[in-house]
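DATA SHEET
Item: assembly model
Revision: 1
Owner: S.N.
Input lines:
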Amino acid sequence: MATVVAPAPPQSPARKLTKPWRDGDQITHLVTLIFAGSVFLVTVFLVYELWIHSGPSRAKFGFGFITGRVWDPVSQQFGALPFIYGTVLTSILALVISVPLGVGAAIFLSELAPPRLSNACTFLVELLAAVPSVIFGLLAIFTLVPLLRSYVEPFLKDTLGYLPLFQGPAYGVGYLAAGLILAVMTFPFIISISREALMAVPREQREAALALGATKWESTWQVVVPFARLGILGSIFLALARALGETMAVTMVIGNDTGIHTSLLSPGYTIAAIIANEFTEATGDVYLSSLVELGLVLFALTMVLNAAAQLLIIVTTGKGSKQN
Amino acid sequence: MKKQTLWIVLLTAVAACSAMAAETINAAGATFPAPIYQKWFEEFHKLHSDIQINYQAIGSGGGIRQLTEGTVDFGASDMPMTNEQMSKITKFKVLHFPTVLGGVVPTYNVSGVGSLKFSGATLAGIYLGEIKKWNDGALKKDNPGVNLPNQDITVVHRSDGSGTSFVWTDYLSKVSPQWKSKVGSNTSVNWPVGLGGKGNEGVAGLVKQTPYSIGYVELIYAVQNKMEYGSVKNMAGDFVKADFTSVTDAAAGAAKNMPADFRVSITDAPGKNAYPISTFTWLLIPEKIDNAAKEKAITEFLKWMMTAGQGYAQGMSYAPLPKPVVAKEMKQISLIK
């Protein structure tokens, strides 16, 4: 309310005073423009650097780099496909687990939980989001991986072993372990942002739905969640971005194998993990520039997935407005 | 009180001045010898307060890159520079100075078998994925009388590029023609089988957790963590367990045929007590150093490192250089101009 009242007083003093204020506006405009522009410049500069330094690799492999399955530093043959596959697979696996859990938890915290419990939980969730990824990696190595190897993976093989997704030896480390740890890491982002979005839904919307005779569940699922849809989708994209770029925790549990495997129990590799693993000791121009090109591929992959996500928003928003 | 403050100010000023007068030398490279290098630079600074050597452990590849770009005064590497890398540095020739030795040992998780013996061909077979079971004929032949289980072998290797992997694959290339043609040797290779662990601790952790697994770690790491490791058959046909003397013996065995530039691999070295998976680690020093003060500082340090410095090696779990190698290196110091 205060902000609405504030602009009134400057009108009463003489005109002189208003002019500097307008200059102030221009300065603010300029300063914020520079800030916004710097974001753009950093991105452009990043792409430029990646493009320049991946030169030798691009010249040698061309588009074959993206479809290449061999990563052999000895014979200087490099292909990105196993890493692209691992990155996409683990990220999707993470989201498949964390989205229903996260959105469900957010609905509970914003709609159903008593405020005190909700606040306490939110505080803990935000704490979880601030834990460094190495800690998650260590946690995964010492608890998640042995659990998976001794109990979960043998169980999956016994019950769902006829599916190609759950075959091969149970090492503990692999796509599944990486997907799970990424799910744990992306979970707090989804809860935290989705909860904010759900809380921002005007009370009138809920009251109107209830007044029309909707049950609590109907009002939540058919009115509140669609209203907060953009915020929830935003939280999922943020989680996706985090999962795609996560390095330390993933490389500690994915098994670092440069093959492409269908089974979720097999060891694999992600783009971020191989860059972190091999960059320090990479010698030779082609080797080094191939690692840089992987960075470029990761950048492109993030762009593509983000664009796909934006498209999804447009499609679902269109659908939503029709319903209204 | 005031007097005291005055003294403090004065002393700080003096300290600042002397710090400015000190010759600061920057170096970067291998992580494996980093602990002893830090110790050496610190001890050397105590003796020569005017010389300060900063070392960044960014990896051998990084050390070579920085030296090539001229951003450091000297580099350090766990593997000798290749001719291609040497040819990229046009301003000066690079001299290789071995500093200490390291070994790489096979470690495994098989309960109730005690210390196992491995021949080179067996290790290559396991890492190629051809020897799949612990009770394979080749392993039985190396370990007569040991009750080896009928279980699948899980192979563990390093996932990060490292000098340790270089030594391991260099050794396998020497003892197995098939390994040489199929995989080869490098800081990281296209592993035919196995899980990758990050760093020595990553490999050790995976081996410790995974029953019936085998991996390889640096000798220092195995010693410091009191890990069980196997002995390896050397060129003379004896199974040798790695320790400081057997690693130094490998260097002594290789010293006879040492090339003048010290760019030599000492894996599978001759000598009855020589441990076959051993390696030097090198300092990469420019032959021509323009700054006279820096040149003096670096040569002084090298002389000290070959003599008194070697005394610190064993205490920090590194194998010291054998005498004949030290004598040869001392001659090389005079080449620095």
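QC remark: The two ends of chain B are 52 Å apart (CA to CA).
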